[in-house]
């Protein structure tokens, strides 16, 4: 099988053309997944970070057709795609007095000493 060399810009051009092909076919959700982040090309390995598992599952189903398109377009059949999930931690807000106190205690454990010393309630 051929292993023609390619550049990052050539790869990105093929990646974007596949996304445009999906849009023309009416699969806008999958096209948006392809445009959600930028693939990282390292030699023949391509890593694609995504923010959640749902997007990864959808792209995994399309992966064989995507790889076929990329390999044929670049004339390099050794390219491999790895999809990684980089979950973003959701910020938790504190609302109740107990939650606020626990958060303050986490930041400064001496607050518990002051509360006991002055016999304070929440």
Quick take:
With 122 residues, the protein is of the alpha+beta class. It contains 5 helices and 3 strands, in the order H-H-E-E-H-E-H-H.
Tell me the distance between the termini.
71 Å
Q: Supply the number of helical segments.
A: 5
Gyration radius, in Å:
24 Å
The percent range for strand residues is 5-15%
Per the principal axes of the C-alpha atoms, what is the gross shape? elongated
Low-confidence stretches: none
Structural class estimated from helices and strands: alpha+beta
Proportion in helices: 40-55%
One letter per element, helices H and strands E, the order comes to: HHEEHEHH
The number of E-state strands comes to 3
In which order are the strands of the major sheet placed? 1-2-3
Number of domains: 2
Describe the sheet with the most strands: 3 strands, mixed
Mean pLDDT: 91
Describe the structure.
By secondary structure, this protein is of the alpha+beta class. The protein has 5 helices and 3 strands. The protein has helices spanning 8-25, 28-34, 53-74, 97-107, 110-117, and strands at 40-42, 45-50, 80-85. The longest helix is centred in the middle third of the chain and has 22 residues, at 53-74. The model has no long low-confidence stretch (mean pLDDT 91).
């Amino acid at each position: 099988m051929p292993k023609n060399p390619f550049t990052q810009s050539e790869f990105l051009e093929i990646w974007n053309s596949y996304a445009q092909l999906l849009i023309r076919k009416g699969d806008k959700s999958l096209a948006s997944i392809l445009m959600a982040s930028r693939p990282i090309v390292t030699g023949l390995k391509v890593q694609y970070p995504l923010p959640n598992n749902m997007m990864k599952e959808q792209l995994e189903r399309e992966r064989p057709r995507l790889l076929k398109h990329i390999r044929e377009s670049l004339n390099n059949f050794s390219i491999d795609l790895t999809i990684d999930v980089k979950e973003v931690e959701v910020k938790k807000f504190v609302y109740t007095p107990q939650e606020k106190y626990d958060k303050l205690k986490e930041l400064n454990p001496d607050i518990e000493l002051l509360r006991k010393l002055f016999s304070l309630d929440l």
